[in-house]
Design a protein that fits this description.
The protein has 279 residues and is α+β, with helices and mostly antiparallel strands. It has helices at 8-25, 85-88, 228-237, 256-265, and strands at 56-61, 69-76, 80-83, 91-99, 102-110, 117-120, 142-147, 154-170, 174-186, 201-203, 209-217, 222-226, 269-277. The termini are far apart.
């Protein structure tokens, strides 16, 4: 029996194919390993410490402001309140509003390095508990911001994105670390700017203060708060005794409007007004 003679081109093609298979099989492969499994639930790992290499966001503060308003919250039962520094910076006379047309005079102490300030009044309200800095915020966790946006009672909820550096230009120019949140919900019928919410507490799901609400970026849907350590450092420097790091009232997306109403009714969260600006 005689086998048919194969064409030369077929023999050469088979040899070349065999050589290619051997060469490819010996190539080094340096593919990255598969990614780790996702973190269970909707809350990620704790944030690391603040860094000068964090992304930056710029906020312009006007040199001269008109008397305005913001939000403050009680940090001890003796008449100590926290608010955002820019709410009362350049203000000669400020007051905590306790009823329609009625207010209590407040003495102002500015944070020299962060966007926070302490107001002191004669008499106070039950304190809102603080969360210890030893319990760092987690990426994706939710916060609730009760206060007085646009001068009226209202609240917002948000999700934590990470850390940034807030670059403040104008009066009191400085750079400070902040937490950046994505707004994910707000009071019904609240449209537009959140002006007036500055100074409001950012509360975790256990009702504890994570930071002070200081700025917003409406176009990006972002809210900025002070870092936890900013609040703790200011209270230590001023020798205030904050509320113990106990749990507050549990807050969810179902009840945060009701909880916010209770905090305002008890004056634990109150409106602060600047009555007279510096000349």
């Amino acid at each position: 029996m005689h086998f048919p003679k194969l064409p030369d081109w077929l023999i050469y093609g088979a040899v070349v194919s065999a050589l290619l298979v051997v060469a490819i099989g010996r190539q080094e492969r340096s593919d990255a390993p598969p990614p780790p499994p996702p973190v269970p639930g909707d809350v990620g790992l704790p944030l690391g410490p603040a860094s000068p290499f964090d992304p930056s966001v710029v906020v312009q503060v006007p040199e001269k402001g008109q008397p305005g308003s913001g939000t403050a919250f009680s940090v001890d039962d003796g008449g100590s309140w926290l608010t955002a520094r820019h709410v009362v910076d350049g203000c000669r006379e400020a007051a905590i509003v306790v009823a329609d047309g009625r207010g209590v005079a407040a003495r102002i102490t500015l944070d020299p390095s962060g966007d926070a300030a302490i107001l002191t009044t004669e008499g106070g309200a039950p304190a809102v508990p603080l969360r210890a800095a030893a319990e760092p915020p987690r990426r994706g966790e939710r916060a609730y911001h009760p206060g007085f946006p646009q001068g009226h009672p209202g609240e917002v909820t948000s999700r934590l994105l990470g850390r940034e550096n807030l670059v403040i230009r104008g009066r009191g120019a400085r750079v400070e670390p902040v937490l950046v949140w994505a707004e994910v919900g707000r009071t019904d019928n609240l449209k537009g700017t959140l002006s007036g919410l500055s100074g409001a507490p950012a509360l975790d799901s256990a009702g504890r203060v994570i930071g002070v609400t200081v700025a917003e970026s409406p176009r990006r849907g972002r809210i900025y708060t002070t870092a936890q350590e900013t609040v703790e450092d200011l209270l230590k420097q001023s020798r205030r005794r904050p509320a113990s790091f106990a749990l507050g009232e549990s807050i969810t997306t179902e009840n945060y409007g009701r909880v916010a109403d209770g905090l305002r009714r008890d004056l634990r969260v109150a409106q602060v007004v600047c009555l007279k600006s510096e000349a």
